[in-house]
Amino acid sequence: MNRNEAVDAAEDLLVALESLRRCTRQAETAVRRGMRANEQGSTVDEVFTVVDPAVVRESMNVALKAVEQGRHRLRLAVFAEALRAGVSIGELGRVFGFSRQLAARYARESQNGLVRSA
Asked: pTM of the full predicted structure?
């Protein structure tokens, strides 16, 4: 893992976040359409036709999963780079706001070469 991999991971995360933002806006639009249909007296079945909850849910799930994977990949890349620079596992835990034990797990994972390009 090198600095370029961390930059690549950050860029991939930005793409995933933009996709999530787009999916969130689409979900908000769908909910507003459903509320409008409900206010106009539509039945529940008619509202479901307007909103299509399965499609909204699936697109949000895919986008959320991509963000989680991107965050994880970036975290591993940062850990690998920071450890190489001499930052302690305890300090990494403090910086990221989680326990030293979890930081140690990330450190192990980053050192085992588990960071891959997406």
From this structure: 0.83
